[in-house]
């Protein structure tokens, strides 16, 4: 299956100023597969080391982490001759060996001609800052996410539809109604299946939602296991409470995160470490409110007002135990959850495109779902789950701040009217 990160990895390989690469991201998003595919197609051989399946590797790094010492031993362990420029060296589950992470600094300084990638699922939470020094400035870093809507459609064999969507997005021309309806169905399928590569592959091969849900449940179980394995004992229960509560928060009309919904009398001081753990692990992310619409937006965020979204829509549906048909037909029973789920979807697509997302509220309660910086402009994005797109809040925002234009994401077809760019939900990846 095509992954957009392939282009980044190929550019990294050819970069004359290349440093060792740390590829991070939540479990099961396809890091190992993408790197091994790079090795197979662009290198003569791959020397692969997994610190989870081969814990004895740690002993090698405990002794000495200079490249001169490590390379002959690693060649022997891998059963591969490691050759400058021609061998891809891969450290998988590198969070389990902090000395291996530190060694990247010396590969950068003393052996830059060797191509080395370190993969980690829980780098932010599993490594002890007291025991090792992170190789700041000596590594390239990239975060990998689940498959976005475009990658999902391409996996489904819809390359021509993707091309048509991009064309209509650029020209603000409505899609032919039959193609619009087909793309909306794919969007709803994506909500159920999500972007975890194993789930997408299973769905393309079988169209069996029950099989996909079983795989999603397995991934969710591995996340819960990580919460116990890589967490402070006192924080395990709190982390699970927060994670379990996110779907409840997304069902509220106001999706701003509220500690009192986790437990009666809940406070920030009690749960902020748990939220930080979930964010660092890549399982969830926070979107802060901005108090002023000025650049840089980060300077004006309200640290006490935020929303939390999960990293994958399929896992969200599995966690909520939603029946596939209920999502595919958007039944009335889901009315309370549709808005939060749609916001979560848009946040995921924007994040994958590299945006830092915020939201905005007026003193009188008008709210804009997302504020982004696009092409140097601060742009408001209004999100609607259906095609009823009357947006009073957007009018309030536009009258107050006069943006270059606004974006409305909904079930409606492409268009541009009254300084608002209308974009169907399935085309959020185009932004």
From TrEMBL:
<keyword id="KW-0547">Nucleotide-binding</keyword>
<dbReference type="Pfam" id="PF13635">
    <property type="entry name" value="DUF4143"/>
</dbReference>
<feature type="domain" description="AAA">
    <location>
        <begin position="18"/>
        <end position="153"/>
    </location>
</feature>
<dbReference type="InterPro" id="IPR027417">
    <property type="entry name" value="P-loop_NTPase"/>
</dbReference>
<keyword id="KW-0067">ATP-binding</keyword>
<dbReference type="InterPro" id="IPR041682">
    <property type="entry name" value="AAA_14"/>
</dbReference>
<protein>
    <submittedName>
        <fullName>ATP-binding protein</fullName>
    </submittedName>
</protein>
<feature type="domain" description="DUF4143">
    <location>
        <begin position="225"/>
        <end position="385"/>
    </location>
</feature>
<dbReference type="GO" id="GO:0005524">
    <property type="term" value="F:ATP binding"/>
</dbReference>
<dbReference type="Pfam" id="PF13173">
    <property type="entry name" value="AAA_14"/>
</dbReference>
<dbReference type="InterPro" id="IPR025420">
    <property type="entry name" value="DUF4143"/>
</dbReference>
């Amino acid at each position: 299956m095509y992954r957009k990160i392939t282009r980044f990895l190929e550019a990294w390989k050819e970069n004359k100023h290349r440093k060792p690469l740390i590829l991070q991201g939540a479990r099961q998003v396809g890091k190992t597969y993408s790197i091994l595919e790079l090795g197979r197609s662009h290198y003569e051989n791959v020397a692969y080391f997994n610190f989870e399946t081969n814990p004895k590797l740690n002993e090698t790094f405990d002794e000495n982490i200079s490249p001169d010492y490590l390379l002959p031993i690693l060649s022997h362990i891998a059963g591969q001759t490691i050759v400058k420029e021609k061998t891809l060296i891969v450290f998988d589950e590198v969070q389990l060996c902090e000395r291996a992470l530190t060694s990247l600094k010396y590969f950068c300084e003393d052996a830059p001609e060797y191509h080395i990638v370190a993969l980690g699922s829980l780098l932010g939470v599993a490594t002890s800052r007291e025991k090792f020094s992170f190789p700041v400035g000596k590594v390239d870093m990239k975060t990998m996410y689940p498959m976005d809507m475009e990658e999902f459609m391409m996996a489904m064999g819809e390359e021509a539809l993707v091309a048509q969507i991009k064309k209509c997005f650029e020209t603000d021309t409505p899609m032919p109604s039959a193609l619009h309806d087909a793309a909306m169905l794919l969007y709803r399928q994506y909500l159920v299946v999500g972007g975890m590569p194993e789930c997408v592959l299973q769905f393309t091969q079988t169209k069996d939602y029950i099989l996909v849900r079983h795989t999603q449940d397995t991934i969710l179980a591995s996340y819960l296991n990580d919460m116990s394995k890589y967490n402070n004992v006192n924080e395990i229960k709190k982390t699970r409470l927060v994670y379990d509560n996110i779907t409840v928060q997304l069902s509220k009309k106001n999706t701003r995160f509220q500690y009192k919904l986790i437990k009666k009398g809940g406070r920030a001081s009690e749960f902020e470490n748990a939220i930080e753990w979930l964010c660092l692990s890549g399982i969830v992310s926070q979107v802060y409110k901005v108090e002023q619409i000025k650049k840089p937006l980060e300077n004006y965020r309200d640290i006490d007002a935020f929303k939390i979204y999960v990293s994958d829509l399929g896992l969200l549906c599995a966690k909520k135990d939603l029946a596939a048909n209920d999502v595919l037909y958007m039944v009335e029973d889901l009315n309370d959850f549709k808005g939060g789920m749609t916001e979560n979807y848009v946040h995921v697509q924007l994040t994958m495109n590299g945006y830092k997302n915020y939201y905005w509220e007026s003193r009188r309660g008008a709210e804009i779902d997302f504020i982004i910086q696009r092409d140097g402009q601060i742009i408001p994005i209004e999100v609607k789950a259906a095609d009823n797109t009357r947006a009073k809040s957007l009018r309030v925002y536009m009258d107050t701040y006069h943006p270059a234009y606004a974006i409305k994401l909904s079930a409606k077809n492409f268009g541009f009217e009254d300084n608002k760019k209308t974009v169907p939900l399935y085309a959020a990846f185009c932004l």
